[in-house]
Amino acid sequence: MQYFPLFLNLKGKPVLVVGGGEVACRKVDTLVRAGAMVTIVSPQIEDYLRTLVDSQECIWIQNFYSKELLDKKFVQVWATTDNPELNHQVHRDAKQLGILVNVVDDLPYCDFITPSIINRGRIQLAISSGGASPVLVRNIREKLEAALPHNLALLADFGASKRNDIKQALPSVDSRRKFWENFFADPRSDKAETRAELEALYQDTLKSGVSEQGSITWIDFGDDVEMLPIKALRIMQEAELVLFPKQCPYSFIDLSRRDAERGEYASDSELADQLSKAKQNQLRIVVFVSPDSAQFNLLKNNDLHIKLGSQ
């Protein structure tokens, strides 16, 4: 992973953009929508930027760039001109002041990059190839746009509005997480077009109750993580505890739920002890095992065992 993924709160924070052309238009538009206090430095600017200036959504310094215009108050600096020498000068000046800087389309001179974004109300999805393949990123974005539910904004707003209500109904963090997993897994959530439909589903899910019963799923690992069945991926995302031997490739473990507890086991007795403790807490457990190993058969009982490449 070359870049650390991060969503930055720029609301009310000063950002400097050097340049006033089409590239600056795209960057300033996104920055303004994020609530940043944008200052543009350029002798001339595009009509769209003039509109933003006239509506007092950003400030325009109608002049050529000079080092004196930089100030440590800026949290970001963007160099968007078509003059590489000027852009690199902006980069040097910003670095001297310890300000994060992005020279557009010039990766060696970027402290950060901006991903391709899918915006659905409160939901934001960011996709990046680290600048390696913008066309591939666009292709991925198009596929995601087509696959995502049309009502994501509605779902996010509804979930946000129920934060206090669900805390009163279900005091336990685990119970609330399982409730929302059941709520969003219900096909009616993706099809809902109104808040009233979601409210009905919300009440139905509350009445159904939240199962506190734990489970154990055994999943084979191998050399190719892409051989994992969809069912295995779904269960891995629901797991509260992930257990694995030392030889299990990290690519398998990494696909499990991010906030799941993780533990390594070295023998069947050690694994048995870990499972015994986890069962007492009614946890949903995923155990990664080598496909050619039979040493854990006595521990499996009637648990689900998912093999690579299975349906």
Automatic annotation (TrEMBL):
One of its GO terms (molecular function) is ferrochelatase activity. Pathway: Porphyrin-containing compound metabolism; siroheme biosynthesis; sirohydrochlorin from precorrin-2: step 1/1. The lineage of its organism: Bacteria, Pseudomonadati, Pseudomonadota, Gammaproteobacteria, Vibrionales. Residues 152-203 form the Sirohaem synthase dimerisation domain. It is an enzyme of class 1 (oxidoreductase). It holds the Pfam family Sirohm_synth_M. Its EC number is 1.3.1.76. GO terms for biological process: siroheme biosynthetic process. This is precorrin-2 dehydrogenase. Residues 120-146 form the Siroheme synthase central domain. It catalyses: precorrin-2 + NAD(+) = sirohydrochlorin + NADH + 2 H(+). Gene3D superfamilies: NAD(P)-binding Rossmann-like Domain, Sirohaem synthase, dimerisation domain, Siroheme synthase, domain 2. Keywords: NAD, Oxidoreductase, Porphyrin biosynthesis.
